[in-house]
Specification:
Layout: E1 2-8, H1 14-24, E2 29-37, E3 40-47, H2 50-59, E4 63-69, E5 71-73, H3 82-92, E6 97-102, E7 108-112, H4 115-129, E8 143-146, E9 164-167, E10 174-176, H5 191-214, E11 218-223, E12 226-231, E13 237-244, E14 246-250, H6 256-269, E15 280-282, E16 285-288
Parallel strand pairs: 13-15, 14-16
Antiparallel strand pairs: 1-3, 1-4, 2-3, 5-7, 6-7, 8-9, 9-10, 11-14, 12-13
Helix pairs in contact: 5-6
Length: about 290
């Protein structure tokens, strides 16, 4: 989660302009607040996708003063003095709290000057107060079988095929290879394709779930996702970004703005997007059936 410190004009409509800019970009605010400080409006808002929020705001002419990671924790709201006790523990550890507010799930959001020390205090606090969330562990297995031995094994780089199969219990095998640039079979899936596909599929499944909960009726969904990989001189490489471009058709009567905004929430929830270190961007198109 990212906290963006945003400068606003101290005039009627400034907050509306900001909210509308985020809405057009399909970016949802997860919590925060805004205040008048001196002659300016100062806002701290929480976003699941800070990069998308920053782009939308700056494109609309807003100044983003700071973009940072924040601590997200729970306190016992029925017990008086909890904020003071937590703040005292932060002070004892030499951590200065620079921003504090709550999100839409009644979690406490703290912007601190030392994330490492602040995170240690936060984890200790939740453990001691019994507020740690129970994490359920799920396990997944896959079997990869190389099928590309042409008779001499890997006797040289050119003497074997990159063909393999990915399988799992009770599931059909996926015929796979490497990218054609690396002597692979272009008619088979490669690891890079599968990663982009996993990000797209995970986002889609969360999005459909959120639409169902919000009363948005989706009748068609297609995503032409694309990933960029940078190969280094020594042959190593890494993904630099993946862009999802879902085209979503909703039934007439469903709210297009809500439909667009739910993409940010889906990105925040997606198991795969939360597990990668490169940016995953979303450029959705919302179409109203018969519109």
């Amino acid at each position: 989660m990212r906290d963006l410190n945003i400068r606003l004009k101290n005039q009627p409509g400034a907050l509306a302009d900001m909210g509308e800019a985020l809405g057009r970009a399909g970016v949802s605010i997860e919590g925060g607040g805004a205040f008048v400080v001196g002659k300016d409006g100062m806002a701290h808002f929480l976003f699941g996708d800070g990069n998308a929020a920053r782009k939308a705001l700056e494109a609309a002419g807003f100044e983003v003063l700071r973009d940072r990671e924040v601590l997200v924790l729970r306190i016992d709201q029925d017990k008086p003095g909890q904020l003071g006790a937590l703040a005292r523990e932060m002070a004892k550890a030499g951590v200065n709290i620079e921003a504090v507010y709550s999100d839409h799930q009644n979690q406490l959001i703290l912007g601190v000057d030392d994330m490492e020390k602040g995170r240690a205090v936060s984890e200790r606090w939740m453990a001691n107060s019994g507020m740690l969330r129970t994490v359920r562990e799920h396990r997944y297995t896959a079997t990869v079988t190389w099928t590309g031995n042409t008779g001499t094994g890997t006797s040289s780089y050119r003497e074997y095929q990159r063909d393999h199969e990915i399988s799992a219990k009770d599931k059909p095998a996926i015929p796979s290879s490497s990218d054609p640039h690396f002597r692979g079979d272009r008619t088979r899936w490669n690891p890079e394709d599968l990663l982009v596909g996993s990000l797209s599929a995970c986002h889609q499944l969360w999005y459909l779930h959120l639409c169902a909960d919000a009363g948005i009726v989706v009748v068609a969904y297609e995503d032409n996702a694309q990933g960029a990989l940078a190969e280094e001189p020594d042959g190593a490489g890494q993904f630099t970004r993946v862009v999802l471009r879902p085209r979503v058709t909703i039934r007439k009567g469903s709210d297009p703005e809500v439909a667009a905004s739910l993409h940010a929430k889906a990105h925040e929830k997606c198991f795969i997007a939360r597990s990668v270190r490169f940016p995953v961007e979303c450029e959705p198109t919302i179409v109203v059936q018969g519109g």
